[in-house]
Amino acid sequence: MTEIAVRKIVVTVEEVRHDGGPVLATPILKGSVACIVKNPFAGRHEPEIAGMMDALKPLGLECSTKLLQALGGDPARIEAYGKGSLVGAAGELEHGALWHVPGGYAMRELLGQALAIVPSMTKVGAMGASLDVPIHHKDAAYVRSHFDGVTVAVADAPRADEILFALAMTTGGRPHARVGGLRQDEITKRDGLR
């Protein structure tokens, strides 16, 4: 089994009070957690990497828990989520894909009902690069008001031989959503789509 060596975890929370329109009665919280880990495959092509997904599962749960606590601790308040990976320059795009199961399933497990697939972004980048983590509604991917994103960046990460694994959650959609589409209160199907 691949050992997971964590260098640091960074949690960030934004409190959005308005976005140019009227002040919201309840601010929307948008949070992210970034976990910086050593990439055991940096600098070489390793044909078999899938075993690292199992090794990352406890970290996925730890990061999800830290993020939920930073957003107030109540799973019922979380409306949207996303995940992503930023691989250091000595790694491959596929190394970031190792986060799909450990990051996504951890959030879904922690939140209880979370029917929609967790949107994701993976890229290779230099130290200090930003990662735009896509966000959508946790129960119905077509809820247009919750199409959003959270930008994650850590000044000294990822180093060439590291991976930045990120999770994001929000307590609402865009502050003044008004472009139509399926609304949160119109979710009827339980297929994760509508």
UniProtKB/TrEMBL annotation:
InterPro entries: AA_synth_put, BB2672. It comes from the Bacteria. Pfam families: AA_synth. Gene3D superfamilies: BB2672. This is Amino acid synthesis family protein. It comes from Methylobacterium oryzihabitans. The lineage of its organism: Bacteria, Pseudomonadati, Pseudomonadota, Alphaproteobacteria, Hyphomicrobiales.
